[in-house]
Amino acid sequence: MPILPLLAGLLALAFLGLCSLAVSACTRYDAALLPLPVLCGAVTVLYVTALFNVLHIGLFAVAGGLLAAGVYCGVRAGWRAVRDAAGSPGFWLFVGGAAFLWVLFAALQPMFTQWDEFTAWGLAPKMVAERARLYVADPVNLTASFTYPATSLLSYLFQFIPGHFAEWQCLAAIDILALASFAPLAALPRARWPHSVLLFAAAAVLPFFFSTAPVGTASTVYRNAMADLPLACLFGGALCLYQAAGGRRGGFYAVALPLAVLAMTKDIGLAYGLIAVFLIGVDQLFGTQQPEGWRRLRVFGYRLARTALLAVPVLAVFVSWSRYTAAMAPEAGSSTVGSAQMSYGAVLLGGVRQLLGIGREARFAELMQTMAQALVSRRVCLLGPPAVVLGLVAGLALLAFFAAPRGALRRRVAAGFFASAFCFAALYLFHLILYFYNFSETEAAALKDYERYLMPFLQGWTMAALCQLGQCAAAPARTLRRRLGAAGVGLAAAGFFAVFAWRGVPTAGFWTRADSLYSVRADVKARAGVMNEVLDWNDRVLVISQGDDATRWYYYKYELTARVINGYGGVWWGDSDYSSRWDSDFMNLVESLSWTMYDYTAVCTEASLIAYMDEKNCDYLVLDRADEYLERDFSARFEGGLKADQPATLYKFLGPDAEVPFVPVATAESGVGE
């Protein structure tokens, strides 16, 4: 167990907790409401400083700002007020859960396992931690348009050794943000602490509830660097923060911080941020107490205007990131969608025309039917299709409605449910349009990634419904309504736990050691470690691993401290004829297309390999695994020859004019993961 990062992380959590308590004591907000805006505020500061390439200064600004706020608020409020603020059950649920995860991950040392983590969502935090700058400004193995910076900056906040990156710290940081998003659900009066515990625990089970992993497989819930969990939790957490604290001006504007981070989580984060602003606006206009007479119009305008202000950070993040990536990597930016290269505006306009039946194509009609069937048949959670989730959320809304006292709180429940249902319908139609314009016919017909696209909204909506149920159950009401609210909270929590125990407990979860998943990772990591003693970030490397299905290539792309160059597929003989060659990522070199030993073949001779290395300005070749074909036909161009069973070797490329262009400079022996 790494003692220094472990202790540093616990001290950081203690620092965060003390600052939150001091601010809570000064503002009289429940301390459970503070971790989410504080963490999101820290990420926002890092984002601003990263845009100016002074990310390291951002860390000092975050630490200094929190220290100054904590000392000022603590002194102003006094010890007694700080002690009273520490009585928040939701705050201690967050602190205890965060400390538990940090210690657990430090002991188990979980690693990345999914392909997208090695090309984007795990590689980006690694580069930011090691280079202390955004990957767009320093592109090595990452395309600027591939990922947004929220998870990278959050991970950087918890990486305590400069220039060093630990995967478990990245995973723990993402999970701590999730716990901070759950904390507003537990921001209830101290006397309702059992409700706080139940709601926090139910929210923590939701990611498993919305998992569609096959039974008997290892779960990646709380153990992956993908942006799906932060997107769902920030969307739901922002709504919960508003419901729990939005009645006061400071609490209302604090929602802007998670909304800003939501917009920098994924490209769809802009839509989710604007949806959250819309839902808050509906609540402000129709779900809160309205004055009588002529003052209603003025209050209506005021609430509309301040709700619109919440959209400013969402749009500011979107615009600033777009301009930043366009300035730093103009070749990576794209304002078009799909193979037709249509603009986003043209896609939306064309989609609306298709929906209205104006010139509707047969494929769009088929997709409409497929999407309609998926609503009641495609599994998105442990209980089944989206229709089941809609029924579940409607049930939570009914419980909250009848538990709430008559008046504004009931209007809030009704307005929130119908507005959220409208947004879900709009999001569903939006993805229908995307399937039509942005996917191939085969992918669209299969509704590729359907579950991943809908899960963040459904999970966030369920979080908001649970929070609303808790707020209604805690509101002053008659004994019958109070008992109904308490029963509703208990029933909801028990239901989620029962489903989790029945169908959701994974064979291997984040609490288990998953060494069997890391055998190939360990092999590639050991080999890449030897080669990294020779390589530098500016070196360009082509990786060849015969028989690979891209797994080892992705691992090398992540592990090597160099620029890994994509390969090609098809036929190329080393001359100027490119007609039968297409861009690829990894390559399996074969003698002819009739040889079907490998998929994703690249017909290659020694002349074409040398020409391709020269064309791509490669400095090195990593020969991870050879075979009989390479031994027979390529040995003459490699110093010392080649053997089909030789260890992984790094070769220096001397250029096309050298008699022997490839000279070995590092050899990595390994016996695991084969």
Count, helices:
26
| Number of β-strand runs | 11
Output the strand order for the largest sheet: 4-3-9-10-11
- Principal-axis shape: globular
What does this protein look like?
It is a single chain. It contains 26 helices and 11 strands. Strand 3 (540-545), helix 24 (551-559) and strand 4 form a beta-alpha-beta unit. 60% of the residues lie in helices and 7% in strands. The chain is α/β, with parallel strands linked by helices. The model has no long low-confidence stretch (mean pLDDT 88). Strands 4-3-9-10-11 form a 5-stranded mixed beta sheet. It has a 4-stranded mixed beta sheet with strand order 6-5-8-7, with no helix packed on it. It is globular, with a radius of gyration of 27 Å. The longest helix is centred in the middle third of the chain and has 34 residues, at 295-328. It has helices at 3-27, 35-51, 55-77, 79-85, 89-108, 115-121, 123-131, 150-157, 167-182, 193-209, 228-245, 249-254, 256-263, 269-286, 295-328, 344-355, 362-377, 386-403, 408-438, 441-445, 450-474, 479-504, 519-532, 551-559, 606-615, 628-633; strands at residues 336-337, 342-343, 540-545, 563-565, 568-571, 581-583, 588-590, 601-603, 620-625, 648-653, 662-668.
